[in-house]
Design goal:
The complex is a heterodimer of chains A (199) and B (200).
Chain A: H1 2-13, E1 23-34, E2 44-54, E3 59-81, E4 84-106, E5 113-132, E6 135-155, E7 162-173, E8 185-198
Antiparallel strand pairs in A: 1-2, 1-8, 2-3, 3-4, 4-5, 5-6, 6-7, 7-8
Chain B: H1 2-5, H2 13-16, E1 21-26, E2 43-46, E3 52-55, H3 68-85, E4 89-90, E5 99-107, E6 143-151, E7 163-171, H4 179-192
Parallel strand pairs in B: 2-4, 2-5, 3-5
Antiparallel strand pairs in B: 1-7, 5-6, 6-7
Classes of the chains: A mainly beta (199), B alpha/beta (200).
Chain lengths: 199, 200
């Protein structure tokens, strides 16, 4: 968090205009692979929307929203607890929505190619849901989320408005669930999408 | 397409209801590591070929009325036979049974499911395993088969009350793909996960 604040302050101190663009709107698929797999282990394809503001040739800032539904299946088995037992199979679903602001560093950006690294922080809204037979129960959790990311913005034509984005990021969210004895969530995300540059 | 890629997905109902949920509860004062009240019992009673029906919304009793030969008889007889197989003798209600067995269908009936705690818990009679935490659940608008075992022998000792020492909940009866077969499986599972129901 402190690094992000420092980055944002640096951008304010060096307000020179970037050469490649003023900003970029991004939209694409967010493929999330959980590395914390206690509740869900399957890869999820969600979506992510974002905006980047290029303040200088090397620094910028942005914000984004991402949404993924992760799931997993636990085969039918018997669970013991004090005073009884329950037998069922369970579908675990994790509905995960994040809003982040980020500071961005551009490395050797050209007019058509913008490699970057960023560090984002924000809020994660997570709903953990168990489905078993026709029954359903949920636990809603709000937590802090941090996301370091490295990626590449590619512009089809110089001064053109259309491009592509690809990025890989690590996500860590403090969205532990006491109800289901779950720890903080973490995962690796791959993003691919389209970019609309505005000059 | 992007929006659809991550929208609120849910499992398919057909996959969800392929087997019933079976929950059993026992009275921990009567059944624990130092005693098992079932070893003090010999006889029981159960209503033959009858299943009770309790509804909070209407008097539709098609499960217990319309499907008598396909549901009521086989299910109630399986309950009876499971208890006989555990070493107990069925007697008439007037023959001073040690415990009674009630079989009921609850329709649209809310009840609180047991709160459990995330931990490894040494199960009774050798049932071990990671216990998955189930939080509070309210059954509503569903059909649930309930089996109760009531202590008759200790009626006076329990303050002139019939104490329920074991309960089993099985559902959902309405959404199941095969009412009779899946209910029979559920009843069998209820006794399987309650090995303390034994004369020995």
């Amino acid at each position: 968090m402190r690094l992000i604040v420092i980055t944002l302050l640096a951008m304010a101190v060096f307000p020179a205009k970037a050469q490649f663009s003023d900003g970029a709107l991004t939209a694409g698929l967010n493929i999330l692979l959980p590395t914390y797999t206690e509740f869900v282990g399957n890869t999820s394809t969600g979506f992510r929307l974002g905006y980047s503001r290029f303040k200088t040739d090397t620094f910028g800032w942005g914000f984004d929203a991402a949404y993924n539904t992760l799931d997993d299946y636990v085969p039918r088995q018997t669970y013991e607890y004090p005073g009884g037992a329950i037998t069922t199979d369970v579908y675990n679903y994790m509905y995960h929505l994040t809003f982040l602001v980020n500071g961005q560093y551009y490395y050797r950006a050209t007019s058509r190619l913008v490699p970057y690294a960023s560090l984002g922080a924000g809020v994660a809204l997570t709903e953990y849901t168990l489905f078993y037979n026709v029954y359903k129960e949920s636990d809603n959790v709000v937590g802090f989320v941090a996301r370091p990311e490295a990626g590449l913005l590619f512009r089809f034509k110089e001064y053109g408005s259309l491009g592509l984005k690809s990025a890989v990021s690590f996500e860590y969210a403090t969205n532990k669930s006491e109800a289901y004895a779950l720890e903080n969530f973490s995962g690796v995300a791959f993003q691919i999408g389209i970019v609309l540059f505005n000059d | 397409m992007l929006i659809l890629a991550g929208c609120n997905l849910e499992p398919q109902l057909g996959e969800l209801v392929k087997d019933m949920v079976v929950q059993t509860q026992y009275d921990q004062a009567s059944i624990n590591t130092s005693q098992n009240i079932f070893t003090t019992y010999t006889t029981f009673t159960i209503r033959e070929d009858t299943i009770g029906f309790v509804s909070t919304r209407y008097s539709n009793t098609y499960i217990v009325d319309g499907a008598g030969d396909d549901f009521v008889k086989p299910v109630s007889r399986l309950v009876r036979d499971s208890i006989i197989a555990a070493g107990f003798t069925k007697v008439a209600p007037t023959a001073n049974p040690d415990f009674a067995v009630n079989v009921t269908v609850l329709d649209n009936f809310n009840f609180f499911q047991t709160i459990t705690y995330p931990a490894f818990y040494p199960g009774y009679y050798g049932y071990y395993g990671y216990y998955y935490p189930f939080v509070s659940t309210y059954y509503s608008s569903y059909g649930t088969l309930v089996i109760e075992i009531v202590d008759v022998k200790n009626y006076a000792a329990n303050g002139n009350q019939y104490k329920v020492i074991w309960k089993a909940y099985m559902g959902d009866l309405y959404a199941t793909i095969d009412l009779k077969a899946k209910t029979m499986e559920a009843v069998t599972q209820a006794f399987k996960q309650s090995p303390y129901i034994s004369k020995d």
